[in-house]
Design a protein that fits this description.
Layout (H helix, E strand, L loop, with lengths): L4 E11 L2 E10 L4 E8 L5 E8 L3 H15 L10 H7 L9 H12 L4 H8 L3 H10 L8
Antiparallel strand pairs: 1-2, 2-3, 3-4
Helix pairs in contact: 4-5
């Protein structure tokens, strides 16, 4: 008899008198899933949650939101300003009137958000937020 799944990786988390295991596993058909198990001191599995890989990113977004709510000042950022500026040189800089006018003109020419982001050295999210603030509608992605 062959195993129903292969364990790709496992992370152990000590939680008081319990131990949690967060495992990434793969079924015989190649599909992957996350398994979160709670084990007591005697080694008996008490509960297990299985999550298909397509739902894992949403689960982690939800856990991140909970972590931020519990400890907003302790939640580490996924990046630093310096790291962000390597790919977007003007990230987190204040917008000037001249840059706003240029953004308005380029938006009127039909440039897409990703083109505006590249031209202004800012992230697409920053471009969308600025366009909204200026009362403009973004063109494409």
């Amino acid at each position: 008899m062959t195993a129903e799944y292969v364990e790709i990786m496992s992370v152990r988390v000590e939680a008081g008198s319990r131990t949690l295991y967060v495992d990434l596993k793969q079924n015989q058909d190649g599909s992957r899933f996350l398994s979160i198990s709670e084990v007591n001191r005697e080694g008996d599995a008490r509960s297990r949650i299985l999550i298909d890989e397509q739902y894992v990113p949403e689960l982690f977004r939800a856990l991140g939101a909970v972590l931020h709510f519990l400890a907003p000042d302790k939640t580490p950022k996924a990046y630093t300003v310096e790291e962000r500026r390597r790919s977007h040189p003007h990230a987190y800089e204040a917008w000037t009137e001249e840059e706003d006018e240029r953004l308005r003109a380029e938006c009127a020419q039909g440039l897409a958000v990703h083109q505006l982001a590249q031209a202004h050295g800012r992230t697409p999210i920053a471009i969308r937020a600025r366009l909204e603030r200026l009362g403009l509608t973004p063109n494409g992605p």
